[in-house]
């Protein structure tokens, strides 16, 4: 086995396997829009922290991809917001902001972030 094939094999074993259909390639701007749409229950400081950090936005996108894979369906509308049919929610408790959806009667928390290192 060539070194290149070994590298490809290693990369495939480490990188999460998201659907690569191209129909749902979201951007940092999309992540910012999704968080803003859900921000009614977050403090201004928490919202500012979440939408101003590229690492948080990138992680949020990964969480959305993982949620789609877990549910087996697209969870983001064409307007870059979480599908309202999933009853998306944001919450903030004890310095942690989180996001959840409801699927088949169960609440699924798909992303949580410690705000400002608190």
Topology:
Blueprint: H1 3-14, H2 28-38, H3 44-52, H4 54-71, E1 89-93, E2 96-103, E3 106-114
Antiparallel strand pairs: 1-2, 2-3
Helix pairs in contact: 2-4
Q: How much of the residues is beta strand, in percent?
A: 15-25%
Provide the residue-averaged pLDDT: 85
Report the radius of gyration as a whole number of Å: 16 Å
Helical percentage: 40-55%
Name the helix and strand elements from N-terminus to C-terminus, one letter apiece.
Answer: HHHHEEE
Q: Care to count the β-strands?
A: 3
Low-confidence stretches: none
What is the terminal separation in angstroms?
A: 48 Å
Please tell me about this protein's structure.
By secondary structure, the protein is an alpha+beta fold. Strands 1-2-3 form a three-stranded antiparallel sheet, covered by helices on one side. The chain is built from four helices and three strands. The chain has helices at residues 3-14, 28-38, 44-52, 54-71; strands spanning 89-93, 96-103, 106-114.
Summarize this entry quickly.
With 118 residues, the protein is of the alpha+beta class.
Features:
118 residues, alpha+beta, three-stranded antiparallel beta sheet, 4 helices
């Amino acid at each position: 086995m060539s070194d290149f094939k070994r590298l490809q094999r290693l990369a495939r074993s480490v990188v999460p396997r998201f659907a690569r259909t191209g129909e749902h390639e979201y951007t940092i701007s999309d992540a910012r829009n999704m968080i803003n749409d859900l921000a009614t229950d977050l403090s201004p400081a928490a919202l500012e922290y979440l939408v101003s950090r590229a690492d948080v936005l990138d992680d949020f996108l990964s969480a959305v991809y993982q949620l789609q894979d877990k549910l087996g369906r697209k969870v983001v509308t064409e307007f870059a917001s979480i599908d309202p049919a999933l009853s998306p929610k944001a919450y903030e408790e004890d310095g942690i902001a989180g996001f959840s959806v409801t699927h088949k009667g169960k609440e699924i928390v798909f992303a949580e972030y410690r705000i400002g290192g608190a």
